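Example 3.2
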Amino acid sequence: MHIPEDIFLPLYANETSSWQRLNYQIQSASQVLFLCETNVRVHALHIKAALFKNAKLIEIPSSGEGFKSFQNLEKILGILHQENLDRHSLLIVMGGGAFSDLCGLAASLFHRGIAWIVIPSSLLSMVDAAIGGKTAINLGEVKNLLGTFHEPANLIFYPDCLRTLPQIEFNSGFGEMLKTSLLISNKEFQLVESMNPNQGYSDSGELLKLIDSCMRFKEKIVKADPQETLNLRSMLNLGHTIGHALESEFLYQVPHGICVAYGLWLESSLACKLHNTSPLLPARIARIVRKMNYKLPHVPDGHLVLNRCLGDKKNRNQSIGFVFLREVGELWDGVHTVSRYSLAELKNPVKETFAECFA
Protein backbone atom coordinates (compact mmCIF):
# COMPACT_ATOMS: atom_id res chain seq x y z
CA MET A 1 0.00 0.00 0.00
CA HIS A 2 1.59 3.28 -1.12
CA ILE A 3 1.00 6.28 1.12
CA PRO A 4 2.24 9.70 -0.09
CA GLU A 5 5.21 11.04 1.83
CA ASP A 6 3.34 14.02 3.29
CA ILE A 7 0.32 12.32 4.79
CA PHE A 8 -1.08 15.60 6.11
CA LEU A 9 -1.76 17.12 2.71
CA PRO A 10 -5.47 17.89 2.23
CA LEU A 11 -7.50 14.85 1.27
CA TYR A 12 -11.19 14.54 0.64
CA ALA A 13 -13.23 11.78 2.25
CA ASN A 14 -14.68 10.43 -0.97
CA GLU A 15 -11.25 9.51 -2.34
CA THR A 16 -10.48 5.80 -2.25
CA SER A 17 -7.32 6.14 -0.17
CA SER A 18 -8.95 8.30 2.48
CA TRP A 19 -9.43 5.61 5.13
CA GLN A 20 -5.92 4.27 4.57
CA ARG A 21 -4.56 7.77 4.96
CA LEU A 22 -6.68 8.36 8.06
CA ASN A 23 -5.05 5.37 9.73
CA TYR A 24 -1.59 6.69 8.90
CA GLN A 25 -2.49 10.18 10.07
CA ILE A 26 -3.54 8.84 13.47
CA GLN A 27 -0.48 6.61 13.83
CA SER A 28 1.92 9.38 12.81
CA ALA A 29 0.56 12.02 15.17
CA SER A 30 2.41 12.64 18.42
CA GLN A 31 -0.94 13.21 20.12
CA VAL A 32 -4.60 13.23 19.07
CA LEU A 33 -7.12 15.61 20.64
CA PHE A 34 -10.83 15.38 19.81
CA LEU A 35 -12.99 18.50 20.24
CA CYS A 36 -16.74 18.21 19.75
CA GLU A 37 -19.77 20.40 20.27
CA THR A 38 -21.76 19.36 23.32
CA ASN A 39 -24.88 18.66 21.27
CA VAL A 40 -23.15 15.91 19.24
CA ARG A 41 -21.49 14.17 22.18
CA VAL A 42 -23.27 10.84 21.60
CA HIS A 43 -22.15 10.73 17.96
CA ALA A 44 -18.62 11.79 18.94
CA LEU A 45 -18.37 8.94 21.45
CA HIS A 46 -19.34 6.44 18.73
CA ILE A 47 -16.72 7.82 16.34
CA LYS A 48 -14.05 7.97 19.04
CA ALA A 49 -14.66 4.32 19.94
CA ALA A 50 -14.41 3.29 16.29
CA LEU A 51 -11.54 5.47 15.06
CA PHE A 52 -9.80 7.48 17.77
CA LYS A 53 -9.64 5.19 20.81
CA ASN A 54 -6.57 6.88 22.30
CA ALA A 55 -7.72 10.45 21.74
CA LYS A 56 -8.88 12.65 24.58
CA LEU A 57 -12.42 13.93 23.97
CA ILE A 58 -13.35 17.42 25.16
CA GLU A 59 -16.87 18.80 24.77
CA ILE A 60 -17.27 22.48 23.95
CA PRO A 61 -20.61 24.29 24.36
CA SER A 62 -21.17 26.56 21.38
CA SER A 63 -23.81 29.00 20.25
CA GLY A 64 -23.92 28.96 16.47
CA GLU A 65 -22.56 32.01 14.66
CA GLY A 66 -22.10 33.84 17.96
CA PHE A 67 -19.40 31.28 18.84
CA LYS A 68 -17.01 32.84 16.31
CA SER A 69 -15.44 35.45 18.59
CA PHE A 70 -11.95 36.42 19.81
CA GLN A 71 -12.91 35.23 23.28
CA ASN A 72 -13.79 31.72 22.12
CA LEU A 73 -10.76 31.55 19.82
CA GLU A 74 -8.56 32.30 22.82
CA LYS A 75 -10.42 29.63 24.80
CA ILE A 76 -9.78 26.94 22.17
CA LEU A 77 -6.12 27.95 21.79
CA GLY A 78 -5.82 27.74 25.57
CA ILE A 79 -7.16 24.17 25.51
CA LEU A 80 -4.63 23.16 22.84
CA HIS A 81 -1.86 24.63 24.98
CA GLN A 82 -3.12 23.02 28.22
CA GLU A 83 -3.23 19.63 26.50
CA ASN A 84 0.42 20.08 25.47
CA LEU A 85 -0.18 19.67 21.74
CA ASP A 86 2.95 20.12 19.64
CA ARG A 87 3.52 20.75 15.93
CA HIS A 88 3.08 17.06 15.16
CA SER A 89 -0.23 16.67 16.98
CA LEU A 90 -3.55 15.99 15.28
CA LEU A 91 -6.75 17.86 16.13
CA ILE A 92 -10.14 16.24 15.44
CA VAL A 93 -13.04 18.71 15.18
CA MET A 94 -16.67 17.56 15.17
CA GLY A 95 -19.49 20.08 14.98
CA GLY A 96 -21.38 22.51 12.81
CA GLY A 97 -20.03 25.15 10.47
CA ALA A 98 -19.39 27.87 13.04
CA PHE A 99 -17.61 25.41 15.34
CA SER A 100 -15.33 24.08 12.60
CA ASP A 101 -14.67 27.62 11.33
CA LEU A 102 -13.26 28.67 14.69
CA CYS A 103 -11.49 25.42 15.61
CA GLY A 104 -9.93 25.27 12.15
CA LEU A 105 -8.63 28.81 12.67
CA ALA A 106 -7.17 27.75 16.01
CA ALA A 107 -5.46 24.79 14.30
CA SER A 108 -3.98 27.13 11.69
CA LEU A 109 -2.55 29.46 14.35
CA PHE A 110 -1.30 27.03 16.98
CA HIS A 111 2.43 26.38 16.45
CA ARG A 112 1.90 28.17 13.09
CA GLY A 113 -0.38 25.36 11.97
CA ILE A 114 -1.14 21.83 13.11
CA ALA A 115 -2.97 19.12 11.17
CA TRP A 116 -6.69 18.78 11.74
CA ILE A 117 -9.54 16.54 10.64
CA VAL A 118 -13.11 17.77 10.37
CA ILE A 119 -16.26 15.74 11.01
CA PRO A 120 -19.20 17.95 9.98
CA SER A 121 -22.28 17.33 12.10
CA SER A 122 -24.81 19.64 10.43
CA LEU A 123 -26.21 19.60 6.92
CA LEU A 124 -24.78 23.05 6.27
CA SER A 125 -21.27 22.05 7.30
CA MET A 126 -21.47 18.82 5.28
CA VAL A 127 -22.36 20.51 2.01
CA ASP A 128 -20.41 23.74 2.47
CA ALA A 129 -18.59 24.97 5.57
CA ALA A 130 -16.35 21.94 6.22
CA ILE A 131 -15.08 21.79 2.63
CA GLY A 132 -12.42 24.12 1.31
CA GLY A 133 -10.20 25.06 4.23
CA LYS A 134 -11.69 28.47 5.00
CA THR A 135 -11.45 29.24 8.71
CA ALA A 136 -12.66 32.41 10.38
CA ILE A 137 -14.14 34.38 13.21
CA ASN A 138 -16.36 37.45 12.98
CA LEU A 139 -15.28 40.98 13.86
CA GLY A 140 -18.17 42.83 15.41
CA GLU A 141 -21.08 42.59 12.99
CA VAL A 142 -18.85 41.74 10.02
CA LYS A 143 -18.92 38.04 9.22
CA ASN A 144 -15.73 36.00 8.65
CA LEU A 145 -13.49 39.08 8.48
CA LEU A 146 -10.55 37.41 10.26
CA GLY A 147 -9.44 34.02 9.02
CA THR A 148 -7.02 31.79 7.15
CA PHE A 149 -6.94 29.08 4.53
CA HIS A 150 -6.05 25.88 6.39
CA GLU A 151 -7.27 22.73 4.66
CA PRO A 152 -8.23 19.81 6.90
CA ALA A 153 -6.05 16.76 6.36
CA ASN A 154 -9.19 14.66 6.08
CA LEU A 155 -12.97 14.93 6.14
CA ILE A 156 -15.20 12.24 7.64
CA PHE A 157 -18.81 12.15 6.46
CA TYR A 158 -21.09 10.76 9.18
CA PRO A 159 -24.72 11.19 8.04
CA ASP A 160 -26.17 9.71 11.25
CA CYS A 161 -25.68 13.18 12.78
CA LEU A 162 -28.58 14.36 10.63
CA ARG A 163 -31.00 12.11 12.52
CA THR A 164 -30.76 14.33 15.60
CA LEU A 165 -30.34 17.65 13.78
CA PRO A 166 -32.93 20.28 14.86
CA GLN A 167 -35.35 21.22 12.09
CA ILE A 168 -34.16 24.82 11.92
CA GLU A 169 -30.59 23.61 11.34
CA PHE A 170 -31.75 21.21 8.65
CA ASN A 171 -33.48 24.11 6.88
CA SER A 172 -30.31 26.16 7.14
CA GLY A 173 -28.34 23.42 5.39
CA PHE A 174 -31.13 23.13 2.86
CA GLY A 175 -30.51 26.78 1.95
CA GLU A 176 -26.89 25.99 1.08
CA MET A 177 -27.97 22.91 -0.91
CA LEU A 178 -30.32 25.20 -2.84
CA LYS A 179 -27.38 27.46 -3.69
CA THR A 180 -25.17 24.62 -4.86
CA SER A 181 -27.94 23.00 -6.90
CA LEU A 182 -28.39 26.30 -8.77
CA LEU A 183 -24.70 26.22 -9.67
CA ILE A 184 -24.60 22.55 -10.72
CA SER A 185 -27.49 21.91 -13.10
CA ASN A 186 -31.24 21.90 -13.55
CA LYS A 187 -31.31 18.21 -12.56
CA GLU A 188 -30.08 18.95 -9.02
CA PHE A 189 -32.22 22.08 -8.78
CA GLN A 190 -35.34 20.13 -9.72
CA LEU A 191 -34.47 17.58 -7.03
CA VAL A 192 -34.34 20.40 -4.46
CA GLU A 193 -37.66 21.70 -5.78
CA SER A 194 -39.24 18.29 -5.24
CA MET A 195 -38.19 18.08 -1.59
CA ASN A 196 -40.00 19.28 1.51
CA PRO A 197 -37.34 20.75 3.82
CA ASN A 198 -39.68 20.62 6.81
CA GLN A 199 -39.65 16.82 6.77
CA GLY A 200 -36.06 16.91 8.00
CA TYR A 201 -33.71 13.97 7.53
CA SER A 202 -34.85 10.75 5.96
CA ASP A 203 -33.00 7.69 4.75
CA SER A 204 -34.07 8.49 1.21
CA GLY A 205 -31.33 7.90 -1.29
CA GLU A 206 -32.25 11.15 -3.01
CA LEU A 207 -31.15 13.30 -0.07
CA LEU A 208 -27.84 11.48 0.36
CA LYS A 209 -27.27 11.63 -3.39
CA LEU A 210 -27.86 15.39 -3.35
CA ILE A 211 -25.52 15.86 -0.39
CA ASP A 212 -22.84 13.90 -2.25
CA SER A 213 -23.35 16.00 -5.40
CA CYS A 214 -23.00 19.22 -3.40
CA MET A 215 -19.85 17.98 -1.66
CA ARG A 216 -18.24 16.83 -4.89
CA PHE A 217 -19.08 20.09 -6.67
CA LYS A 218 -17.50 22.24 -3.98
CA GLU A 219 -14.47 19.94 -3.81
CA LYS A 220 -13.99 20.36 -7.56
CA ILE A 221 -14.13 24.15 -7.35
CA VAL A 222 -11.85 24.30 -4.31
CA LYS A 223 -9.25 22.03 -5.91
CA ALA A 224 -9.18 24.26 -8.99
CA ASP A 225 -8.96 27.51 -6.99
CA PRO A 226 -7.87 26.67 -3.42
CA GLN A 227 -7.20 30.23 -2.25
CA GLU A 228 -9.50 32.26 -4.50
CA THR A 229 -6.66 33.53 -6.68
CA LEU A 230 -8.37 32.62 -9.99
CA ASN A 231 -11.78 34.15 -9.18
CA LEU A 232 -13.32 30.73 -9.88
CA ARG A 233 -14.24 30.11 -6.26
CA SER A 234 -16.24 33.36 -6.17
CA MET A 235 -19.20 31.50 -7.71
CA LEU A 236 -19.70 29.84 -4.32
CA ASN A 237 -20.72 33.27 -3.01
CA LEU A 238 -23.98 33.11 -4.95
CA GLY A 239 -26.67 34.60 -2.70
CA HIS A 240 -24.12 35.46 -0.02
CA THR A 241 -23.69 39.20 -0.57
CA ILE A 242 -27.23 39.97 0.54
CA GLY A 243 -27.32 36.78 2.65
CA HIS A 244 -24.46 37.95 4.86
CA ALA A 245 -25.99 41.43 5.09
CA LEU A 246 -29.25 39.87 6.30
CA GLU A 247 -27.37 37.88 8.93
CA SER A 248 -25.88 41.12 10.21
CA GLU A 249 -29.28 42.87 10.01
CA PHE A 250 -30.80 40.17 12.21
CA LEU A 251 -27.81 40.17 14.61
CA TYR A 252 -26.96 36.56 13.66
CA GLN A 253 -30.20 35.30 15.20
CA VAL A 254 -31.36 33.88 11.84
CA PRO A 255 -29.35 30.81 10.68
CA HIS A 256 -26.83 31.33 7.89
CA GLY A 257 -28.42 29.04 5.31
CA ILE A 258 -31.85 30.64 5.71
CA CYS A 259 -30.33 34.08 5.11
CA VAL A 260 -28.56 32.65 2.05
CA ALA A 261 -31.87 31.28 0.74
CA TYR A 262 -33.41 34.75 1.02
CA GLY A 263 -30.23 36.16 -0.54
CA LEU A 264 -30.63 33.83 -3.53
CA TRP A 265 -34.21 34.96 -3.98
CA LEU A 266 -33.42 38.67 -3.64
CA GLU A 267 -30.27 38.59 -5.79
CA SER A 268 -31.95 36.61 -8.58
CA SER A 269 -34.77 39.17 -8.55
CA LEU A 270 -32.21 41.99 -8.63
CA ALA A 271 -30.50 40.35 -11.63
CA CYS A 272 -33.82 40.51 -13.49
CA LYS A 273 -33.94 44.27 -13.00
CA LEU A 274 -30.28 44.93 -13.79
CA HIS A 275 -29.70 42.42 -16.61
CA ASN A 276 -33.20 41.52 -17.83
CA THR A 277 -32.74 37.86 -16.93
CA SER A 278 -35.82 35.63 -16.88
CA PRO A 279 -38.26 36.23 -13.97
CA LEU A 280 -38.98 32.48 -13.89
CA LEU A 281 -35.87 31.68 -11.83
CA PRO A 282 -36.61 33.98 -8.87
CA ALA A 283 -40.19 32.68 -8.90
CA ARG A 284 -38.92 29.09 -8.61
CA ILE A 285 -36.51 30.06 -5.83
CA ALA A 286 -39.31 31.93 -4.03
CA ARG A 287 -41.45 28.79 -3.92
CA ILE A 288 -38.62 26.87 -2.26
CA VAL A 289 -37.91 29.63 0.28
CA ARG A 290 -41.60 29.81 1.19
CA LYS A 291 -41.64 26.03 1.73
CA MET A 292 -38.98 26.52 4.40
CA ASN A 293 -41.71 28.39 6.32
CA TYR A 294 -39.33 30.55 8.37
CA LYS A 295 -40.68 33.80 9.78
CA LEU A 296 -38.04 36.53 9.81
CA PRO A 297 -37.87 38.76 12.93
CA HIS A 298 -38.87 41.78 10.85
CA VAL A 299 -39.14 42.88 7.24
CA PRO A 300 -35.66 44.14 6.33
CA ASP A 301 -35.18 47.60 4.85
CA GLY A 302 -33.56 47.25 1.42
CA HIS A 303 -31.55 50.47 1.74
CA LEU A 304 -30.12 49.47 5.13
CA VAL A 305 -29.27 45.97 3.87
CA LEU A 306 -27.53 47.50 0.85
CA ASN A 307 -25.41 49.64 3.15
CA ARG A 308 -24.49 46.54 5.15
CA CYS A 309 -23.28 44.95 1.90
CA LEU A 310 -20.51 47.58 1.89
CA GLY A 311 -18.87 45.74 4.80
CA ASP A 312 -18.67 42.41 2.97
CA LYS A 313 -15.14 40.97 3.01
CA LYS A 314 -15.41 40.02 -0.68
CA ASN A 315 -15.67 43.66 -1.80
CA ARG A 316 -12.92 45.21 -3.89
CA ASN A 317 -12.00 48.87 -4.30
CA GLN A 318 -14.93 49.88 -2.11
CA SER A 319 -17.35 48.20 -4.51
CA ILE A 320 -20.08 45.67 -3.73
CA GLY A 321 -19.76 42.43 -5.68
CA PHE A 322 -22.72 40.27 -6.71
CA VAL A 323 -22.67 36.82 -8.31
CA PHE A 324 -25.60 36.53 -10.73
CA LEU A 325 -26.99 33.62 -12.76
CA ARG A 326 -28.19 33.83 -16.34
CA GLU A 327 -30.07 30.62 -15.66
CA VAL A 328 -29.59 27.46 -13.60
CA GLY A 329 -26.04 26.19 -14.05
CA GLU A 330 -24.89 29.26 -16.01
CA LEU A 331 -23.24 32.23 -14.34
CA TRP A 332 -23.43 35.80 -15.54
CA ASP A 333 -20.03 36.84 -16.94
CA GLY A 334 -17.83 38.00 -14.08
CA VAL A 335 -18.86 39.56 -10.79
CA HIS A 336 -21.31 42.46 -11.00
CA THR A 337 -19.68 45.29 -9.04
CA VAL A 338 -21.23 48.53 -7.85
CA SER A 339 -19.05 51.29 -6.41
CA ARG A 340 -20.08 52.74 -3.07
CA TYR A 341 -20.17 56.06 -4.90
CA SER A 342 -22.70 54.67 -7.39
CA LEU A 343 -25.16 53.10 -4.96
CA ALA A 344 -27.87 55.38 -6.31
CA GLU A 345 -28.11 53.12 -9.37
CA LEU A 346 -29.19 50.27 -7.09
CA LYS A 347 -31.53 52.25 -4.87
CA ASN A 348 -34.71 51.83 -6.92
CA PRO A 349 -34.04 48.22 -8.10
CA VAL A 350 -33.31 47.16 -4.51
CA LYS A 351 -36.37 48.98 -3.20
CA GLU A 352 -38.58 47.28 -5.81
CA THR A 353 -36.98 43.88 -5.19
CA PHE A 354 -37.52 44.00 -1.43
CA ALA A 355 -41.07 45.26 -1.88
CA GLU A 356 -41.88 42.34 -4.19
CA CYS A 357 -40.22 39.65 -2.07
CA PHE A 358 -41.60 40.82 1.25
CA ALA A 359 -45.06 41.90 0.12
